[in-house]
Task: structure prediction
Amino acid sequence: MNKDRMKGMIDEVAGSAKRKAGELTDNPKLQAEGMAQQVKGKVEGAWGKAKEAVHGVITGSEVRLDAHVKLGLKDSAATVGNKEC
Result:
């Protein structure tokens, strides 16, 4: 779990507590703040999941750049490899 997912989880829990406190005290401003913090936490969590997925694809794949080029030149002194160019 990366820091974005962890921060998202903390914001979701804190937002939920803030929203419930707003409901219990009949404070619509606190409720709205809690809901906004929950949404922020969900977005952070989704961003963290996306970053982990991309990281998994990058580290799970192996890119090889083993390109061997052979040129067949007709009527020319230039050649490729260990031959004269």
